[in-house]
Write a structure and sequence with these properties.
heterodimer; A: 407 residues; alpha+beta; 2 domains; six-stranded mixed β-barrel; 12 helices; 12 strands; B: 228 residues; alpha/beta; Rossmann fold; four-stranded antiparallel beta sheet; 7 helices; 10 strands; globular; binds adenosine-5'-triphosphate; binds magnesium ion
């Protein structure tokens, strides 16, 4: 029986194609935007969480000024600095297993007469540096080897820099110039897909200090905490010790200490706010779309007054007329929602492809079943609700008056 | 004779437009027995359609009683009225009143949809009715693709969909030329002869009136005469 009403309603929608399409645009623009934003946002949240889980909970970073998460900042403008002295302080703290400082700057890189500016990390080659690389997939080597102690003017090249940046591929043994000094490539990193680690070049810290003429400074210090210590406690301890040695008051720190987890949580909080904004947009656009449907249904009911009279004359009850028009407006909402869903997912997928083409290969959109069911259900409900008043008006018409309408 | 199936006693219908009261029926009384063929005649505005609407449960009287099978329709709820229209009465209108977006076949099925009759049964019935009115070939056509006479034959098929005992036809040939009008009238007469339907027909056609068992003439909302 239901099916008959759906068919009748569908005929009604089909008979007024242009108006139905215009009405559905009101619904599907909103749904498109929301579906695209949510699946992109969720995907972003997922990949961030995954990355921070990969990094492990026992990793901390210490950076000057504001926080740094995926790697050291390459800003040359930081006012406060962290230095070898701070590293010594960190190494003396009980819960710290090892700490390694990285000096990173953008530098002129020349390869076979081509020049580009690349983020170059001075990375320690001692035991602490090795500890830091252990267990992090981003820095694994595809060909050649890691930097090792005693290396000078050697470089490990990020995947994208090696393959894509220059016309010719950089391979193990290639010679290149960083700040006009000749370096030898000893290793090529595996593809990391994070958007950061594929576009760096690593050189020994001592060499970096020479070419940049920075004998003391670090961009970031990476810290590994010992097993059995709570990373958050170590953060507090580090803050306290650094405040003492740097002679700053609590609350006025010119450095920041963060766990991978904290950084992840902060990003998640931002994304949660974004989600709330998206839901707000969704609500407003559904409201606007719903008003559009209501308007269309009122027009439809007016236009089809005599049809309503005819249906009543052949025995349609008020409830059946009401139901018929509700199904019709629900259908407008549902089809609008379906189109919006498909377009939204398409746009999100496009966003994913764009991210991948820019090197962020770990990014995958997240399409939850709840999103699909939710989008369809909510648009159907919005349609039905918007149709409530017009359908009631249709149902309550007096049969004689309705029949006289087209006289 | 046994009890009438339709009985109107002192029926008034007063329309009000602003402060102006228009009495369309003024104390009309009438009774109709099962199987009768009644013609209603009268000048425009005499209240013929208003009378048909009362009998057909499309409207209720301002005053007086309209009894259908012994029940006063004034006591009916909206849903009772709809049920009566859907189960006991078939309408044929001057303007055919088919749903333009539905095919002939679907138009004939429509009353059965509202009665919740299953598809297979509906389909059989609609097919046999369309073949009875000689339009099997046109089942898939929409009203806009049919001639006036064809549309009215579809409407006749529709009025029979739920096997009503009473057929109400308000100027069924009013929009047709005399030749197609005759064809439609023959069909309606056939319903009376072969299917023993009770038929009330509003008409200006003397030939139709000749066939009728009774002719009621209306003027100013009253039956002023009865021929035969
Ligand atoms: N809904 C209404 N509101 C106001 N007046 C109405 C309404 N329906 C009918 N009338 C009036 O009631 C009177 C009787 O109308 P009715 O339609 O019954 O006449 P009729 O005999 O069918 O005329 P015709 O031959 O032109 O169809 C007319 O004066 C008409 O204007
Ligand atoms: Mg009339």
């Amino acid at each position: 029986m239901m099916w008959d009403y759906f068919r009748l309603a569908f005929k009604g929608v089909k008979a007024r194609k242009i108006r139905s399409w215009l009405t559905m645009i009101g619904i599907f623009i909103g749904v498109t935007a929301v579906v695209a934003l949510i699946s992109l946002g969720q995907g972003l949240q997922d990949s961030i969480n995954e990355e921070f889980n990969k990094l492990g909970k026992n990793r901390l970073t210490v950076a000057p000024g504001g926080g740094a998460f995926l790697g050291p900042t390459s800003s040359n403008l930081a006012v406060a600095t962290i230095t070898e002295d701070d590293l010594d302080v960190l190494n003396r703290i009980n819960g710290v297993d090892s700490a390694a400082g990285v000096l990173s700057k953008n530098a002129r890189l020349e390869f076979k007469d081509e020049v580009d500016f690349i983020n170059v990390w001075g990375f320690p080659t001692d035991k602490d540096g090795e500890n830091m690389l252990e267990g992090i997939s981003f820095f694994e080597i595809e060909k050649g080897r890691q930097l090792r102690s005693g290396d000078k003017y050697k470089a490990v090249i990020g995947y994208s820099i090696a393959k894509d940046t220059f016309d010719k591929e950089i391979t193990v043994g290639s010679k290149l110039k960083i700040k006009n000094k000749i370096f030898e490539a000893v290793g090529i990193q595996k593809k990391a897909g994070t958007g950061v680690h594929d576009v760096i070049v690593r050189i020994p810290l001592e060499t970096a200090r020479e070419i940049y003429d920075e004998p003391e400074e670090f961009s970031t210090i990476f810290v590994l905490t010992k097993d059995g210590y709570e990373p958050a406690d170590i953060v507090d301890e580090i803050k306290k010790e650094l405040r003492d040695s740097r002679e700053v008051e609590e609350g006025e720190e010119d450095f920041s200490v963060q766990t991978a987890e904290q950084t992840g949580t902060q990003l998640n909080q931002i994304l949660d706010i974004v989600n709330i904004v998206i839901i707000g947009i969704a609500a407003i656009s559904l409201l606007v779309g719903g008003i559009g449907i209501m308007n269309t249904m009122y027009t439809t009911v007016m236009e089809r007054t005599s049809e309503i009279g005819v249906m009543k004359s052949v025995g349609a009850r008020n409830s059946q007329i009401m139901f018929l028009f509700l199904v019709e407006s629900g259908l407008l909402g549902l089809v609008g929602g379906l189109i919006g869903l498909i377009l939204g997912l398409g746009i999100a997928k496009l966003g994913e492809l764009l991210a991948v083409s820019m090197g962020v290969e770990i990014f995958k959109i997240h399409v939850g079943g709840y999103l699909i069911v939710g989008a369809l259900l909510i648009s159907f409900l919005a349609g039905t609700l918007s149709g409530l008043l017009p359908a009631r008006q249709a149902a309550m018409m007096q049969p004689v008056d309705a029949l006289r309408k087209n006289d | 004779m046994n009890k009438p199936i339709i009985e109107l006693k002192d029926v008034w219908k007063i329309y009000q437009i602003g402060h102006v009261k228009i009495p369309a029926l003024r104390g009309l009384s009438l009774s109709i027995h099962s199987g009768e063929f009644i013609a209603i005649m009268g000048k425009s505005g005499s209240g013929k359609s208003t009378l048909m609407n009362m009998v057909g449960c499309l409207d209720i009287p301002t005053k007086g009683r309209v009894n259908l099978y012994g029940d006063d329709i004034a006591s009916f709820t909206e849903s009772d009225l709809a049920q009566t229209r859907g189960k006991k009465i078939g309408f044929i209108f001057q303007k055919f009143n088919l749903i333009p977006t539905l095919t002939a076949f679907e138009n004939v099925m429509l009353p059965m949809i509202f009665q919740g009759i299953p598809f297979e049964e509906r389909k059989k019935k609609a097919q046999s009715l369309l073949s009875m009115v000689g339009l099997s070939e046109r089942s898939a056509h929409r009203p806009g693709e049919l001639s006036g006479g064809e549309q009215q034959r579809v409407a006749i098929a529709r009025s029979l969909a739920i096997d009503p005992e009473i057929i109400l036809a308000d100027e069924p040939t009013g929009n047709l030329d005399s030749k197609t009008g005759k064809m439609v009238m023959d069909l309606i007469i056939k319903l009376h002869k072969e299917q023993k339907k009770t038929i009330i027909i509003v008409t200006h056609d003397e030939d139709v009136a000749k066939y009728a068992q009774k002719i009621k003439v209306l003027r100013d909302g009253l039956v002023i005469g009865q021929k035969k």
